[in-house]
Records
---
Amino acid sequence: MNMPDQSRTSEPDNEAAVDALRSAVMRLSRRLKHQRVDESLSPAEMSVLGTLARCGEATPGELARKEHVQPPSMTRIVALLEAKDLVRLEPHPEDRRQKVVRQTEQAEAMLEESRRKRNAWLAELAGQLDEDEWATLRAAAPVLEKLAQL
């Protein structure tokens, strides 16, 4: 496996690029958060629903690890989502002591509408880019996705 070259991030041009990336991603993220469909859900609840949409069913413990929160916090989040009929808890197929969290159709529809709204907003912004900037954006998207997964 290739190990990343840690010395590259300490080069002045790369340090500036990392700083600019962090700042831009944070500002864009804040603006995207305001494009939500359902304002009654917390960012943590939306994040859990997004994780379930990407990864499929999971135990509360698995969700806690994926979301980088403590298990008691995830238990509370799952309970709130269950009370809103956005997830359901079902018996684990192999371990009777465990439960599996699954998204409901209502959650899937809400997430799809949220994605549509956010994509439309972002497309409107991106419509102000010239062709060279679009080409750069198309090339950068997979790299940003990789960073998000690391």
---
Amino acid sequence: MSDSNPSAASATQRHSPDIQQLVGLLGNLMPLLLRLQSQTFEQPFRTAPGNFAMPNPVLEHQAAENMIGDMIAESLRSLSAYLEANAAQHAGLENCVSIVTQAANKFTERDFAQAFNLIYFAYRAIEAARAADPRLPLLASIDRTQSSIH
């Protein structure tokens, strides 16, 4: 099978180890999300002599939850903007709209693990649609300021 876009193939080969490492890291993120959601809370602050804050599981949990929430919110904005710009013109993206809607609902419910999982499914569905229709733009090429999710 010949590649219709040799520059894209060479770019994929160049970034393959980075992408594989990122996929591995994201795979490790799911157990972390599940663990964070199941942890119990302790006292909010502990201080050492001299008023230096010591590591605290509650603070660690809150920081991780806020970081994950921000990451998910940004992904939802990106996906939303992409689908708003492209779903009407490309039938292959229709099922992505419902996946992103489900992810947004899970995000609202603070079920970050499920929201993250659904976002990953949406990214996979977009890549499948792009494989079937190379005219579809890259997800990263959308102006995120136009999204309706804020």
---
Amino acid sequence: MTSSTAALRSRRRATDGLLAALAPITACSVALGGLTTWVNTGNAGGPARIAVTDGRVFLPYGDVRDTAAFFRITNSGGADDRLLEVTSSAADGGTELSRHRMISDSAASAQTVDSARVPAGDGLTMSPFGLDVTLRARPEWVVGTFVPFTLHFEDAGRIEVQAVVVRPGDIE
């Protein structure tokens, strides 16, 4: 084999090696470019950003002390979150997340739920006809009393808020 043949083979091997390396480099560059565009347009999302407002607790009637609390929860972030639990040191006994459903024109059912989804870019509004927090009111609560609550979220952690005691007709 002559030196020119050896040089030609060596050059061909180098060219083949460069072409073999070029395919994965090109694929990685295209993927990186696509991901960069996706992130820069805001489609990659971001963490959940939770805000809790409009806390209300129904004032119970007569001898009944079981009642419900309601909150408006917004998520301005780019990822869903979950409300896992709501606690209150001011309630007599524990609290539960529950969902109410109308089963006829005059009857409803309540079911305890483990958690509630708080969608990204949206939120959830608790109401007497959907999700609420059931608890036992203290006898000294009157209209205008502020009751402390802690809402526990999967990603956002704990958020402490106050809910005001209102008459049941005073909630939207």
